[in-house]
Specification:
Number of strands: 2
Largest sheet: 2 strands, antiparallel
Mean pLDDT: 80
Number of helices: 5
Radius of gyration: 36 Å
Structural class: mainly alpha
Strand content: under 5%
Helix content: 55-70%
Distance between the termini: 50 Å
Strand order of the largest sheet: 1-2
Order of helices and strands: EEHHHHH
Shape: elongated
């Protein structure tokens, strides 16, 4: 029994002629704003005030910067302008007392001292372990 697998699942369906439902709603909203302005205002003033809304509706319907819908770009712009900004680094001046080390306290470092024979034994044991690991990885 064979089943047909859908091929173009990321392509939206065209419902209103060559337009998808989202494109149709965006364009209908722009035309609706134009109609409201024409009915309430003089025609010249209505077209001037409705032009940004028409441009926004066309951009929402058809413009895809970076192959992403314009509505995502618009959402990111609004979140950036009205959202809180995160500052990662702020310079805080240090007090002068923190930078200075008291000269009266001597600092002692403990450094292990190896004799020549112990150093040779350690080198030999490391070489043997390295050779054993190489044998394991090579499959011998």
């Amino acid at each position: 029994m064979r089943f047909q697998v859908p091929q173009f699942i990321d392509v939206e369906d065209k419902i209103f002629g060559p337009l998808t439902i989202k494109q149709f709603v965006y364009l209908a909203g722009g035309v609706g704003v134009l109609v409201v302005f024409i009915t309430l205002l003089p025609k010249f003033l209505a077209f001037v005030l409705a032009a940004p809304f028409i441009a926004l509706s066309i951009a929402l319907a058809f413009y895809k910067p970076n192959n992403q819908p314009f509505v995502l770009q618009l959402e990111a712009m609004i979140r950036y302008f009205f959202g809180e900004k995160l500052y990662i680094w702020k310079k805080i001046p240090k007090k002068e007392n923190e930078n200075k080390i008291a000269p009266s306290t001597p600092v002692e470092l403990l450094v292990p001292h190896l004799s020549n024979s112990k150093l040779k034994d350690l080198t030999w044991s490391l070489d043997v372990r390295k050779a054993e690991e190489n044998d394991k990885t090579s499959g011998a």
